[in-house]
Amino acid sequence: MAMKFEKTGEGKYMLDVCGYVCPHPQIYCKKSLEKMEEGDVLEVIFDNPSSGETIIQMCDQAGHEILEKKEEGGKLIYMIEKG
Amino acid sequence: MENIEKRNQVWAFIVTGILILISLLYYKVNVYYMYLIVYIWFGFAYGMMLQYGRFCMASASRDLFAAGVPRMAVGILIALIFFSLVGVVLSITNMSTFHPGPLGFHELIGGVIFGIGMVLAGGCASGSLYKIGEGNGTSILSIIGIAFGQAIFVDIGGVFNKLMPQSWMDKAEATRWIPADKMTAWFDHYLAGYVFHQPQILLSETKAIKSLAGEGNIRYFIGDSLINTIIPAAIVLLLIYYFYTRKGFIKKRRKKKGSTGFSDELAGIWNIITASQRTTFMGVLIGITAGIHILAMKGMQLRFGVNNFGQLLTRMGHGVDVSITGKVFDPGYWYITTQEAQFAGWIMEKLGWNVRDNVFFGVMNGLPELWRNPALWMSIGIIFGAMVMALLKKEFKFKLPKGELIIWGLGGGLLMGVGARVALGCNIGAFFIRVAGGDPGGWLFGMGMVLGGYAGVKFFNWWTERKMAKEMEAF
User: Fold this and answer.
1) I need a surface site. Which of A43, B58, B111, B203 has the fewest CB within 10 A?
2) Do A31 and B468 touch (CB under 8 A)?
């Protein structure tokens, strides 16, 4: 099991933390956003529902915008634009 | 998608049906098992609420320090306030089963160890149980760690006894009510030589509160609820607002309105309370349920004329389950960890380990068969309740623990187990219940838990940075 943080295009990043449980998804998400530029978009893929609530509030407080939230085959996918 | 939803609903009904069937079977065997059934269904209710509200005390300090998210810390404070208010009514009506614990430095130390453990494990004692209900394999390891960490910790003696201060050893040896053959482990000397000599304080029973509020019922509200719970909880809430969310909130308001005043500060405080409505709502509900649970257990005790389930086990001919004082672990309220220690102790005994030659199992808590252990059924109820809620919300997914999570889960669980024994309880028994009950010792454990959580977050931050630096080498 490995965490994946990849650049998928210009200003686009992907963080895959499937299989990870609290607190890893939220910490990796925060660290990833810290490494990105304002306006960049991060696609976070995780399957630990408890982390979702924290990620949503973290983005709200830090001024990041969640562009999209979807669920695919037990995986949660959030598209976050760094604010 | 519709099929999955239907399948989940069927499973939710099956799990609930199994618990109903188990309850009916117990009732059929003996009406005394009503006592145990009450634990099952309160556990089930806790499990549903914990899962719905993502209510895990590990995330209270962890998410605050790691991500600046206060939702869980706020949820706990709300739950404490409501629980304490229900507790006042129970005290006034003489229907409370709450009793304060020994107040001492051990609470702080135990809290620190527990706090580090819960961050590493990814969940506190109750949080790990509800996450098992979500299919989280790492949490199974955490609970195994908590269980065996405690059972081994309370039974080891020999060289560990030599680490005890001589004064504790002397005091322990002088304790007459504990038979010598039960004073074998280091933990026995720790209890009899130190812990049992610490004061037990219930604020409403102190001279200070009685002189302030008089001998009447109002002292329960003033002492146990207002001074021990509501005011400290409000102070913590204000500190969280000031240090974590005020800056961002006021900045947003200023941008919108041009200037800000006192009403904006109040709006900011209200904002952190309502930011995660499901957590706050569950905080209210959990607080009230925990209070009603106490009422229900007291009702059972009055109904059967006992003050411990061990007496009923003895009446039913299961004297082998109880300790030499005729008791089994039966907290009378929401509690985690001791029953997990009994679970591990039961396995160890079946493997030939003599675990009854100590105070923890032999004198205080007994070692009932697993199917006759009331508090263990509460833990099972939590798992099942969380499972039903997770299934209904399409959030159940079995995840085997892999790689580093195995180490974090087991290691964190072991630390939680050790911390819980040092402090005589976990985030529920040593913090939540004690604080809301009017015992200031609960705050000592809470402070330790936050300090430990902070240390755990520092460690994980370092670990995460290190891993991400490796991942980022490619670009």
Assistant:
1) A43
2) yes
